[in-house]
Design brief:
Blueprint lengths: L3 H6 L1 H11 L4 H36 L5 H35 L17 E6 L12 H7 L3 E2 H8 L5 E2 L2 H19 L3 E4 L3 E2 L1 H6 L12 E2 L4 E3 L4 H6 L5 E2 L6 E10 L18 E11 L4 H18 L4 E5 L11 E9 L4 E10 L3 H6 L2 E3 L5 E3 L1 E9 L2 H8 L7 E2 L13 E2 L6
Parallel strand pairs: 4-9, 8-14
Antiparallel strand pairs: 1-11, 2-3, 5-7, 6-7, 9-10, 10-16, 11-12, 12-13, 13-16, 14-15, 17-18
Helix pairs in contact: 2-3, 3-4, 5-12
The structure holds one RNA strand of 89 nucleotides.
RNA sequence: GGAAGCGUGCCGGAGCGGCCGAACGGAACAGUCUUGAAAACUGUCGUAGUUAAUAGCUACCGUGGGUUCAAAUCCCACCGCUUCCUCCA
């Protein structure tokens, strides 16, 4: 939710943002008007209500003879108040409808336009080349007996899989390494619920146009989360948090569930796009003025992980039109996937400024003791999908896969995953 | 799943349909005292909306409805918590 003060003081800034995103900017004028109207109606109601309160007070202290007349006057006032309240409520609903539709104001300087208009910030590492015909992760997974897609489909349907043996251990190793890294940088580990209430799902901004992406359990009125970001953002909902000693940072581990409703036919091979995977997510609550620096910190940690996994990657500054509604800026890092000869997203880090926190009502006290809305940021530190890049990048001619050195301590020192040998 | 009880401010804990935004105690903060601290004393001490305003007004006592001139207080529904029984990783 955008700041209503900004709407009053500088609607042009919001319009510029809407334009950069390719969104409708006339909605901003509508909102300004609705806001003025709401305030007018609210004042009318409050004046009447004050009158009513005063009148009701009189009844209490009135004598027996005076009472009937006063009560009758009160009844008339009560009618008026009720009517005025309805008008004010309707005006507020109308305003909220408009204001909730306006997406976060993007940070100045980010590229305008759609998905293809990103800016490449940097490329790191050299794209892996092979002097043999490289296999894709599906073939490697089968050969090494570490990814069992066939049985995943048998048990749960398309886009499901089993990680087996070294595959399962590799994922856990990666998660543990990521958690160690995060812990060293002041992130508190958190294993989060994956079923959340509608208010929390709505508060994080996922129930908008992407609601068909989300699994819903009608019998319990709960949503399965597609990322622990949802639970992490809801964690401090309706709280006044203490940021005087620095930001609150969490590293949330959870399984993530996605319906992938809009992507039928896309990435159907392998485990690149699946209904269920695991993820370690960083999340920061911070003072708004420090948010941009924090964003760079999250990105730096993501890069540290990518480098520890010895992947080659690039970092992009996502264009305005490709941002989620809550994000003001988003850095993605994409690893080189040899079998596809292209970069694929492995991490995504968003600065949501105060947009998400305002919806969830997360505040802090500034130096003067005044409450202010906090800023929130999130970023990926590891997901199941990383296995795709790791396996494909580090494969060898015989189909074995070299384990990056940084991961070995988490795998009992294992250096290579060898093809399964049939007895 | 069955039974009972409870949901009030940072915490504990009162609260009669009007005098309750809410007693009292604690915590916290500021001051006095002190070399400093503790103790004691004094004061401050919820959140938000509206407004030029730290003036006023409005709203909030789990949530949403209802009754009433007037609701923390009465009624209904929902949510949550606690205890006991049952069951169970």
């Amino acid at each position: 939710m955008i700041d209503s003060n900004l709407l009053r003081e500088n609607p042009d800034a919001i319009k510029a943002s809407q334009r950069a995103r390719g969104n409708d900017e006339s909605i901003v004028d509508d909102a300004v008007q609705a806001d003025a109207n709401w305030r007018k109606c609210l004042q009318a109601y409050e004046t009447l209500r004050a009158e009513q309160n005063a009148a009701a007070k009189l009844v209490g202290s009135a004598s027996k003879e005076e009472r009937p007349a006063l009560i009758q006057a009160g009844q008339v006032l009560a009618e008026k108040v009720k009517a005025a309240l309805e008008v004010a409520n309707a005006a507020e609903v109308h305003l909220n409808e408009l204001i909730w539709k306006i997406e976060n104001v993007v940070i100045e300087g980010i590229p305008a336009g759609g998905e293809e208009n990103f800016t490449v910030i940097k490329e790191v590492g050299t794209k892996q080349t092979f002097d043999f015909e490289p296999r894709d992760h599906v073939a490697l997974g089968e050969l090494l007996d570490i990814i069992d897609i066939e049985r995943g489909v048998k048990v749960s349907g398309s886009r499901f899989y089993f990680l087996k043996g070294w595959g399962a251990r590799l994922e856990l190793a990666m998660m543990n390494m990521a958690l160690d890294l995060a812990s060293k940088h002041d992130f508190t580990a958190l294993i989060t619920p994956t079923l959340v209430r509608p208010e929390v799902m709505a508060g994080t901004g996922f129930l908008g146009e992407h609601s068909d992406e989300i699994y819903y359990l009608p019998a319990d009125d709960l949503y399965l989360t597609g990322t622990s970001e949802v639970a992490l953002a809801g964690y401090h909902r309706d709280e006044i948090i203490d940021l005087s000693a620095g930001p609150l940072r969490y590293a949330g581990w959870s399984t993530c569930y996605r319906r992938e409703a809009g992507s039928a036919g896309r990435d159907t091979r392998g485990i690149l796009r699946v209904h269920q995977f695991n993820k370690l997510e960083m999340f920061s609550y911070i003072k708004p003025e420090d948010a941009e620096n924090e964003h760079l910190k999250l990105l730096a940690l993501e890069e540290a992980m990518l480098q520890a996994c010895e992947l080659s990657y690039r970092v992009i500054d996502t264009a305005a039109g490709d941002l989620g509604s809550s994000a003001a800026r988003k850095y993605d890092s994409e690893a080189w996937v040899p079998s596809q000869q292209t970069y694929r997203e492995l991490t995504s880090s968003s600065n949501c400024t105060t947009y998400q926190a305002r919806r969830l009502n997360v505040r802090y006290r500034d130096e003067n003791g005044k409450t202010q809305t906090a800023a929130t940021l999130n970023g990926t530190l590891a997901t199941t999908r990383w296995l795709v890049a790791i396996l494909e990048t580090h494969q060898q001619a015989d189909g074995s896969v070299r384990i990056p050195a940084a991961l070995r301590p988490y795998l009992g020192g294992q250096e290579v995953i060898e093809p399964k040998v049939r007895a």
